[in-house]
C-alpha cells in the first residue's frame, strides 16, 4: 500500500513539473517580422491562440487557425501546411 501511494505521489509531482515547464511565453517581434496565422504546431505558437489560452506556447492543435507565429515579412502567405497556407488574419 505504501509503495502504491508513493508511486502515485511521484506521478502527481512529475505531472506538475511537466505542466509548470509549459508556461506561456512572450515573444518579442522584430521589425522585419509579421504575424502568420495557422502555421504553428501545437504549443509552438508565439501568441493569439484564442479563448482559454494565455499566449505563446498555448495552442492546443497543430496549425490552429487563431494562433500565430512570427515569420519573416512577406513569407506568411507562401507557407504551406497540411491544413492550407499561412494567413495574415486569423482563420476559422
3D structure, described in words:
The chain is an alpha+beta fold. The protein has a domain at 26-85. It has 1 helix and 4 strands; from the N terminus they run αββββ. The protein has one helix at 2-20; strands at 33-37, 68-72, 80-81, 84-85. A two-stranded antiparallel sheet has the order 1-2. Strands 3-4 form a two-stranded antiparallel sheet. β3 and β4 form a beta hairpin. The chain is globular. The chain starts with a helix and ends in a 7-residue tail after the last strand. Mean pLDDT is 77; it is low at 3-21.
Share of β-strand residues: 15-25%
Tell me the radius of gyration: 17 Å
Quick one: overall form? globular
Largest sheet features: 2 strands, antiparallel
Mean pLDDT: 77
Tally of individual helices: 1
Secondary structure: helix percent? 10-25%
- The rounded distance between the terminal residues' Cα atoms is 50 Å
Topology:
Layout: H1 2-20, E1 33-37, E2 68-72, E3 80-81, E4 84-85
Antiparallel strand pairs: 1-2, 3-4
Concise description?
The protein has 1 helix and 4 strands.
Q: Which structural traits does this protein have?
A:
92 residues; 1 helix; alpha+beta; single chain; two-stranded antiparallel sheet
Amino acid at each position: 500500500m505504501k509503495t502504491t501511494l508513493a508511486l502515485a505521489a511521484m506521478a502527481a509531482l512529475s505531472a506538475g513539473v511537466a505542466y509548470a515547464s509549459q508556461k506561456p511565453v512572450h515573444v518579442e517581434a522584430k521589425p522585419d517580422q509579421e504575424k502568420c496565422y495557422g502555421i504553428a504546431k501545437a504549443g509552438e505558437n508565439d501568441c493569439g491562440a484564442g479563448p482559454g489560452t494565455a499566449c505563446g506556447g498555448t495552442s492546443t492543435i497543430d496549425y490552429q487557425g487563431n494562433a500565430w507565429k512570427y515569420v519573416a515579412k512577406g513569407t506568411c502567405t507562401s507557407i504551406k501546411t497540411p491544413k492550407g497556407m499561412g494567413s495574415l488574419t486569423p482563420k476559422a
